[in-house]
Each structure stands twice: as C-alpha cells, then as structure tokens.
C-alpha cells in the first residue's frame, strides 16, 4: 500500500500528521469476504446414524483380542493420525496401559524379536500417551561400537518408524540423537531410490514435517489421502474418518464465518491500514491449539484475542510513535473505557475493540461460574503490552542487547505466555485457579514453548523486519555478540529450538498436578509455530504455504 494512502488513512483517525512513520507494506488479506458465505448447516439424522454405526464398528476393532501386537499398534496409530482419537480415548488408553505393563513393567521377553518398525511404533505411541519408557529398547539395533546397524538401511518403513519416534526424545538420550541423524540421512537417500510411490510419499512428508511436531488437524487431512493410498487400509475406519473430518470442518466454517463478520464490522483493513489483516490465519492458528467440537468458546475467544494482539503488535512495531505507545501502555494498565481519552483516535478504535472482546469473555466466564479467570486473562495482556513497550524503547534508542538480555524480553513478546493463558480459558471445568497460578510461575514447558516461538519466528522474519526498521532479533543479537555469520548464528539458534523441544517432551512425561489436556494446549502452540514458521514467516506473508494449509482444512472437504 502506498505511503501516501497510509498517511491519509491515519490522519483521518487523528494520528499526528507530520510524524515520519514506518510502514511494513503488509500484503492485504488473501481471503477477502470468502468466509462470510458459510451458512448454518445442521447434520441430518441419516448422516448422524451412519457416523454412529461406523464409530461402533471401529470400537469393535479396538476391543478385539490382541493376537499380534503390530496390527493393534497400527490401528491405534491410524486412529490418532486420522484425527478421530477423541472418539476412542478410553479404549486406546486401556490398550496402551496393558501394552506398557506387558512390555516394560513385566519385562515380557516375547517382543525381543520384534522388528524395528514395531519396536519404534510401540515406543512412540507409549511416549505420546505419557509413558516415560526407556529408549534402551533400540540398543539391540546397534552394533558393538554403539552405531546403528547398516543392515537397517534397506528397511525403509523401520527407519521411518524410528525417525518419527526420535522426535519425542528428551535430554540425555544420545541413542535417539544418533537415531535421528541415522534415519534422516538414510531416508533422504531412500527418496532417490525406486521406492513404492506410497512409501515415497510417506517418507517425503515425514522429512518435511515430523508427525509429533505437526498441527493435528493438518496432519489428519494429509493422512486421509496417504491412508487411502495404502492397499491394506481399513475401509470402515477410512470412511468414518472422512465423514468426521467433513462434519467438523463444517463446524469450523460456521465459527469462522461468525468471526469473519465480527472482523469485517470492525473494519480494521480500512481504519488501521498499516496493520496485518489476518483473521483467517488467526483462526487456523486457533485450530492448531484446539479443533475438537466442544471447545467452541475457547476457539472464538482465542481467535479474537490473537487477532487483536496482532493489531497491537503492529501499532508498537510499525506505526505508533514512542509517545503514542507509551499512552497505549498506560491505557492497558488502567483497563478502563475512560482511559481512551488520552489516546489518538486510531488507537481508540483498537482499544475499544480489545475491551469489548474481554467484556464478552468476562460475561461468558461469569455465566459458567469461572469469573476469577478474567483476572489472569487481563494480567497476561498487560504483561504482553509492557514487553512491547520496552522493545519499542530499545528500537528508538537504537539499542542492541546481548542475546540473554534480548531473550528475557523477546520470550514475552513472542506472545506464547499470553496465548497459553487465553487457551486455558476455553478448557471448561478442568481449569482451576491453581492451573493459572502454575502458568504464571513460569514453568519450564511454557518457557520452552516461548523459545520455540521466538527463535523460529526470528530466524525466518529478521531480514524483512530489519528492512522496515525493527529492534534487533535473536539473529542480529547473536551475530553482534559473538562476531559470527548469519548462517553460524542460525545453526546455534536451531540447536536451542531442538533443546526447547526436549524440554517440552520431558515436561509432558513428568508426573504433574496439571491436567494433561492443559499441557496439550502448550504443546499445540509449539506445533503451530513449527508449521507456520518452518521456512518462512507464513503469518505475515500469508499468500505462501499457509494459504494452502488454510484451504486444506477450512475450504476443501475430503472426497467421500
């Protein structure tokens, strides 16, 4: 958008006219009014009966006696990958509990002859379920020197199974570190051989996006196609997963339609043209955190808060003067409609919308008897804005902090603590005051999620941000402090991301008083950042890979 248009739009909102303001020239929304068109659709009785029939048949498969371990593990794996795990939680927990007891607690030797594929699949499924099983089960696949046997190289499915398992590693598991290097090297080589096309597709996708770090809804959409390509697929499970995906997609479309209408009524694209218009991408982010139908309030709230935070971020990062953002920070601290009096008009628009979102949230929480939670929601936003202001001061002072100093602030500005807080609001009765107090105590899993969020973002967005004028990122801070190249800095920062994932995995395995569903929100926040910022800033440059992701989960139904 031309600078003159930005200036004229802003002046109509009573911003100081003669200030030299920055502009990021963000691209407009790629979606326009597309999602306004989804009308309310009710599931007909015939479809509902068909779904229940298929679900019952899948449940019978799960309850069938275990004659051989591998097929049962594969069934559980496919149920999880296809996104229908929520329908069979109790059955799967019971089966995995028994497998854990037989294979690890009772040290049953019957599985010692298992092939790599089965051992790795069992290990991954148990770790995903929270069982802290030992990686020493893979020692039998190494030689006397501790290296993985070369005879494994031809076992592509075994390598793939081990590769997926390695992404659940924790600190000190050198065997899994070695396994990741070994499997990555040989799977990459395998893609250049004459592989079965179905296996090639699996390997290529896994190398790009490991399952554990993927967005569940996106992985389900991919696996629906991949699973159908397998000659051995179960038709009942496949049909159930297809219908379930499409029904849930309709729920999400209706939700997004309501949110898109709210966003259009705010008219930020015209009133605040300097900011990113990304409400659809915010909803995709939200789906990454929780897609299950019972979390309607959580999704609506989370999406609106992240959309508003994006606008506030652009005010601090791009458009606002230091004096203006200081006023906005003061207004957030006061959290009262009367605080708008001190703001320029363009900020009043944003501030009023933010208060309205939180008032809506407050009313809903009051009706549920959880009014206490609004305090934590507001406090997390205040913490976020204070950090934005401090970062803005660094920029205006042309200050380059040390990496440690930068990270102490940038972990907050990543937004992941605030978003974790908001995600808890939508989790119903399992959330307590103790849950929020734990969250505000800066637990390791939250800090690790912030590290993933901040460094993944910085490594792909720092050049674009420096062009328009932005405080130094982790990349610049590291280069400046240690006198290294950009590439060398990114190697080190990537290792820090890997270590943060080990922290996340470790915390998920630790016995805790915090309910597992709450920890999964934090895990899912990390997954979203891995996907959106893998090779580019997919959120800012939304016409790239993220556009395809949005289409696959929110526009295109699965062919039945």
TrEMBL record:
Record keywords: Lyase, Magnesium, Metal-binding
Ranges for domain Terpene synthase metal-binding: 264-503
Domain annotation Terpene synthase N-terminal: ranges = 30-207
GO MF terms here are:
magnesium ion binding; terpene synthase activity
Query: What processes does the entry annotate via GO biological process terms?
Result: diterpenoid biosynthetic process
Known InterPro entries for this protein?
Answer: Isoprenoid_synthase_dom_sf, Terpene_cyclase-like_1_C, Terpene_cyclase_plant_C1, Terpene_synth_N, Terpene_synth_N_sf, Terpene_synthase-like, Terpene_synthase_metal-bd, Terpenoid_cyclase/PrenylTrfase
- Report the leader peptide range: none
Q: Which domain of life is it from?
A: Eukaryota
- Name the needed cofactors: Mg(2+)
- Similarity comment: family membership: Belongs to the terpene synthase family. Tpsb subfamily.
- Name used for this protein in its record: (-)-germacrene D synthase-like
- Organism, per UniProt? Rubus argutus (Southern blackberry)
């Amino acid at each position: 958008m031309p600078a003159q248009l930005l200036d004229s739009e802003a002046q109509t909102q009573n911003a100081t006219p003669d200030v030299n303001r920055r502009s990021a020239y963000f691209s407009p929304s790629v979606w326009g009014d597309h999602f306004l068109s989804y009308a309310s659709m009710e599931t007909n009785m015939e479809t509902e009966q068909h779904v229940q029939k298929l679900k019952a048949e899948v449940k019978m498969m799960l309850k069938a006696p275990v004659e051989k371990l591998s097929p049962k593990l594969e069934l559980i794996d496919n149920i999880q990958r296809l996104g229908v795990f929520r329908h069979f939680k109790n059955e799967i927990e019971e089966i995995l509990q028994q497998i854990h007891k037989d294979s690890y607690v009772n040290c049953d030797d019957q599985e010692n002859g298992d092939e790599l594929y089965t051992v790795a699949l069992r290990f991954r499924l148990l770790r995903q379920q929270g069982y802290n099983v030992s990686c020493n089960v893979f020692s039998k696949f190494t030689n006397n020197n501790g290296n993985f046997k070369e005879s494994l190289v031809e076992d592509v499915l075994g390598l793939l199974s081990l590769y997926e398992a390695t992404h659940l590693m924790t600190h000190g598991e050198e065997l899994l570190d070695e396994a990741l290097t070994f499997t990555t090297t040989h799977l990459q080589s395998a893609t250049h051989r004459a592989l079965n096309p179905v296996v090639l597709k699996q390997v290529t996708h896994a190398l790009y996006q490991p399952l554990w770090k993927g967005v569940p809804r996106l992985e389900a959409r991919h696996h629906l196609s991949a699973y159908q390509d397998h000659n051995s697929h179960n038709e009942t499970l496949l049909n159930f997963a297809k219908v379930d995906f499409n029904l849930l997609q309709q729920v999400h479309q209706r939700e997004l339609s309501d949110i898109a209408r709210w966003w259009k009524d705010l008219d930020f694209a015209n009133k605040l043209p300097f900011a990113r218009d990304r409400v659809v991408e915010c909803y995709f982010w939200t789906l990454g955190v929780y897609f299950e139908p019972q979390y309607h309030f959580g999704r609506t709230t989370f999406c609106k808060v992240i959309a508003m935070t994006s606008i506030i971020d652009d005010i601090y990062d791009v458009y606002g003067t230091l004096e203006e953002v200081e006023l906005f920070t003061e207004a957030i601290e006061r959290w009262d409609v009367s605080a708008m009096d001190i703001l320029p008009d363009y900020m009043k628009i944003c501030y009023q919308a933010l208060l309205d979102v939180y008032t809506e949230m407050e009313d809903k929480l009051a009706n549920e008897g959880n009014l206490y939670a609004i305090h934590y929601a507001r406090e997390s936003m205040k913490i976020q804005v204070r950090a934005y202001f401090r970062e803005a001061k660094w920029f205006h002072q042309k200050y380059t902090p040390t990496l440690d100093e930068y990270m102490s602030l940038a972990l907050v500005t990543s937004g992941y603590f605030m978003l974790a807080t908001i995600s808890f609001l939508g989790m119903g009765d399992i959330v307590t005051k103790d849950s929020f107090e734990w969250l505000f105590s800066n637990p390791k899993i939250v800090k690790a999620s912030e590290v993933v969020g901040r460094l993944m973002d910085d490594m792909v967005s720092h050049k674009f941000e420096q062009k328009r004028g932005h405080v130094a990122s982790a990349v610049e801070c590291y280069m400046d402090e240690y006198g290294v190249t950009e590439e060398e800095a990114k190697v080190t920062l990537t290792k820090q991301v890997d270590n943060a994932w080990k922290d996340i995995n470790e915390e998920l395995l630790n016995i805790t008083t915090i309910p597992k569903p709450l920890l999964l929100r934090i895990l899912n926040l990390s997954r979203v950042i891995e996907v959106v910022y893998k090779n580019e800033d997919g959120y800012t440059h939304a016409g790239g890979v993220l556009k395809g992701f949005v289409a696959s989960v929110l526009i295109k139904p699965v062919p039945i």
